[in-house]
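Re: folding output
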Amino acid sequence: MENIQNQTQELEGRIALVTGGTKGIGKAIADRLTQAGAKVIVTARNQPGEIDLQHYFIAADLSVPSDVTKVANEIHEQFGGVDILVNNMGSNTLPGGGFSVLTDEHWDQALQVNLLSSVRLDRALLPKMLEQKSGVIIHISSTSGMLPIWESTMPYSAAKAALNAYSKTLSGEVAAQGVRVITVSPGLNKTQAMATFLEDLAKSAGISVEQMSQNLMERLGGIPLGRMADPKETAELVNFLVSPRASYITGANYIIDGGNFPVV
């Protein structure tokens, strides 16, 4: 019982930043870290409709370098730095249909949002972690980075694959200095963003959202657990990875996909 009670507030005194933290997986992570005792900062482009007094909010578009600088400066001024950084920001909103419909602007947008926003924020906030010789960075990637679908995720998958490689190399650089870097690759999560993605695909294909959802799961090879994840399930994994219980884990990529990924 004592061990369980200790775990409920095991992040007390820690400062955490969750990007894209006002909805979907990001909000679930922010809420879970708060529940574990952390003071959580969230970023998003727009203030959420319902004010969440649990979290310190900074409006920012992290695909814009100057906004990354703004966020880092405010964090350093208000909190001195962070102990936990969850780079959750990402999106797959570009046109489907393969290489011929994708412009240079589309590719640049995918890289800015899904890769370079994390690279820049790490560069801004990591020095303080290295100075204090402790910290955890989580990069939220996607199984799409290892299992791409040309019809709908080409630039997104390429950017997430690059994020996976970057995260692994960064972990090797900073591990000896007390900072852990871990990748989490969710599969399909039942979020509003996923619902919009499926609606757009269904409209383009002229079929129902239900049929498109089934088609997507079949295209991915099926999900043995038979459903999409609840974002809270992904958040629970992240909460464990940033906790002292995961103190010997770094450089790994954790796949959380209901058994979908087809290789050992």
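--- second protein (sequence, then structure) ---
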Amino acid sequence: MMEWVDWSNALERAAGWLDDIHWQISRGGQLHAALESLFRGLTLLHRKWDREEWTRFCLEVVRTHPLRELIHQCPYTRHGFDKPRGYAGDAVLIDYLYKELRSSGTTQLGKDIYHFLWRQSGPRSVRERRELLAQELDALAERVHKPRVLSVACGHLREAEHSRAVAEGRIGQLIAFDQDPLSLEVVERQHPGKLVQPVRGSVRSILLGKASFPDMDFVYSAGLYDYLSESVAARLTRLLFGMLRPGGRLLVANFAVRTPDAGFLEAFMDWSLIYRDENQVRAFASEIEPAQLANVEMFRDSVQNVIYMVLTRR
């Protein structure tokens, strides 16, 4: 497949490849087959080319190609590219990956592209992440009476809507911490009352010691670390771990190297994550005193896209 990847005129050939896909979609051909070819091809190019070649392809070929406007009829893809909140991966975008939209006020082509993307492994991992966090909340409430929980970069806190413990009031306090006031407004509407407490703040405020939440039973951040440098991730992990009570648990997550969606996200949505392997995720805990660690657990989700690390405080 795509034997021209290593040729000297690879960028020119890549433009021709996009021409073929554009023609196939424009004439109402086999949309699923065309999107499969696009998705698989972008995965291959992203893995095969060095960063400079890949970036040139995204900026010089994809951004100027008429195929981009066709793909951007998909509301999820367009939202990711436009970044109306001013940053990538906002909570509205993530909501597109949860309950599949049936009426999105867009063209039929846009809906069809969206439904194709919704079924890819990356969105499946995002939905699985929500369920895993809801299960963690429920299990915590079984172990600890009225536990205190902190969600960092909470977004719309959709996992809480899937938690029996939250619905039944068996969580003592759930602090929903996020930089985006619009996301926190959604959280407040979804969870009136005192159980869920929205708090506005940034990672920087935690790093500077301006935001701290002591005596936590569970702290988690499942969609943030993909954007952090190694040094910031390690420092943040140490500070979050320090907020735990003895026996408390910190859960962090990061999308893994070779996640197949990466090529499409970067080329058509201008959405870049920092993909890591297990050793790199384990390094998040490098600033924690080993004597404070009772246990370190690492695992991947069912489709092998997301690496989870759970640290238990002694």
